[in-house]
Amino acid sequence: MVVSSEPSATNINPLNPPVVDEKYYYPDKSPDVREVATHGVDWMKESGWKIFITILIPACFLQTLIYFTGSADISTLYLQIHTAALDLAAEHPNKLYLVLGVTSAVFSMILLFVSLYIQKRKSPVYLMNFVAYQPPDNLKISNNWVPEASLKMGLPQESVEFLSKIGSRTGLGNETYLPAGVLAEPPAMTFQNAREEAELVLGGCLDELFHKTGITPQQIDILIVNCSLFNPTPSLAAMMVNKYKMRSDIKSYNLSGMGCSASVISIDLAKELLQNIPNAIAIVLSTENITLNWYQGTNKSMLVQNTLFRMGGAGIMLTNRSNLRHKYKMMCTVRVTKGADTAYQAVFQTADEEGNLGVRLAPAKELMGVVGDALKTNLAILGPMVLPWSEQIKFFLNLTMKKMGKKIPSYVPNFRLAFQHFCIHAGGRAIIDGLEQNLSLTKYDCEPSRATLYRYGNTSSSSIWYELNYIERQRNVKKGDKVWQIAVGSGFKCNSIVWVATRNIRHK
Fold first, then answer.
1. Which of 32, 366, 374, 479 has the smallest number of CB atoms closer than 10 Å to its CB?
2. What is the per-residue pLDDT across 337-385, written as a single tens digit (0 to 9) for each?
3. 223: burial class by Cβ within 10 Å (0-12, 13-18, 19+)?
4. What are 282-314's pLDDT values in tens digits?
5. Over the range 413-426, which residues count as b (16 or more CB within 10 Å of their CB) and which as e?
6. What average pLDDT does range 62-91 have in this prediction?
7. What is the DSSP letter of 123?
8. How far apart (Å, rounded) are the C-alpha atoms in residues 407 and 81?
9. Closest CA to 445 of 423, 426, 418, 474
10. Maximum separation of any 2 CA atoms in the chain, in Å
11. By the 8 A CB rule, do 429 and 397 touch?
């Protein structure tokens, strides 16, 4: 149990308020010398190398002049430069102005380029550890549970037969999980049960994450929670801050409606924050809430969600502190959003003709067309960042010949030369099969995705972390290996992250 060090509201004397250790200044607060010193040290740690470069440039310039002029020290060099300047001013005054102007311009350009480099340089982001939530066994269901329960809920026989037919083709196994509110007889899909599901999953992720890393809740600087379809007030992020009594100055964010690729979006947001906040630790929590989003109507395009989506979640701890033990270093992120009407409506939450709320999925062929379009754009951006030169040249030559009117098939770069491990969003069998074919991957490459879909179902944004968990448990991840996580989701979005293993990872 975490005990809060803050005084209770009932014990506070308004005439003599307690001193609270805050990082931020307020108008009615006098500066604390110790606090200023602490932040000064932090600034020095962050900016020390910038100061070093700023001093190094003039020092190198002076040392170069001393070397070429044969001067013994700086004072001798000054006298030589002073004498030469006077002679030049007396004989050729215009040349003196030219020399001074060119020297100033060169020195200014050097400082400009160094400043731009300093601005562009970003702090690296490390993945310390992660957790793929394991629900309790009492929430486990078989593949036949959905049609049987739907019949008990009063769905017509035609809808039950449709669920049975689709369920046998999804690629899900007999040990997936649903929340207690959906499993109850009769079902209790209430707001309170939805809260309890969220607290169970997110709390379970945090408990294991803190246990694995040895980090305490009070050490967390940034908290990001993504859940598309359940967004209470206070937010899910506030729920976790309250439960674990995190610091009052924590930067918390709650992302909603971002679909199955939301975990990558959350990681990307954490990256942007970590590259601007020194010595910070961030946690990303990814989940989807099933309790209030179990479709109870008869529309076939919306019934499909009941055969695919299951309970799950993931917790990811990131940092910009290289001295903390970590598994991976982030190489890059790529985010793509296609806003055309077809893409926008491919995965769409709406009510059916009877007013039942659900998620409508586009027909399989249309959906895969939207996925393919978003994927193509994502790969075009990602390719130059990760592919070897040989593949980039082949792709460029193929593109040039097609532009010249040659009727040749498009060249698909071999991404197996860039990555050793693949985490493809387990959105369904069709998505995994389609990406395997389009990217010329092997069954071995896509095994983590199919295994995740079979064992846990489509857990939405957290599925890519179940896949990485499978890779670490079943295979050896070697130092230097690159892991590609790619997810697609409503909007329509296709997002990627590339990680590089910083050490050998073997599951114990």
1. 479
2. 998 889 999 999 999 999 999 999 988 888 888 998 999 889 888 988 9
3. buried
4. 999 999 999 999 999 999 999 999 999 999 999
5. bbbeebbbbbbbbb
6. 63
7. -
8. 68
9. 423
10. 106
11. no
Count CA atoms closer than 13 A to 193's CA, side-chain side: 16
pLDDT at residue 182 is higher than 80: yes
What is the distance between the alpha carbons of residues 159 and 140, in angstroms, rounded to a whole number? 23
Rounded distance, CA 16 to CA 72, Å? Answer: 67
> Helices 300-308 and 157-167 meet at what angle, rounded to 10?
50
Pairing state of beta strands 421-424 and 482-489? parallel
User: Taking the alpha carbons of 456, 458, 461, 467 in that order, is the dihedral positive or negative?
Assistant: positive
Determine the Cα–Cα distance for residues 284 and 178; give it in Å rounded to an integer: 22
pLDDT over 80 at 494, yes or no: yes
Query: Quick one: CA dihedral 98, 99, 102, 103, positive or negative?
Result: negative
Distance CA 313, CA 293 (A): 16
- Compute and round to an integer the Cα radius of gyration of the chain: 29
Q: Which helix (H) or strand (E) holds 60?
A: helix 33-69
> Strand locations in 164-210, DSSP E?
176-177
Other residues' Cβ atoms within 10 Å of the Cβ of residue 197? 26
- Contacts for 213 with CB less than 8 Å, ≥ 6 apart: 128, 129, 317, 325
Q: Which residues of 386-403 are buried (b: 16+ CB within 10 A; e: fewer)?
A: bbeeebeeebeebeeeee
Number of helices and strands (H, E) in the chain? 16, 13
Work out the number of other CB atoms within 10 angstroms of the CB of residue 47. Answer: 13
Cβ-count burial of 329 within 10 angstroms (0-12 exposed, 13-18 middle, 19+ buried)? Answer: middle
Report the Cα–Cα distance between both ends of the chain, in Å, rounded.
27
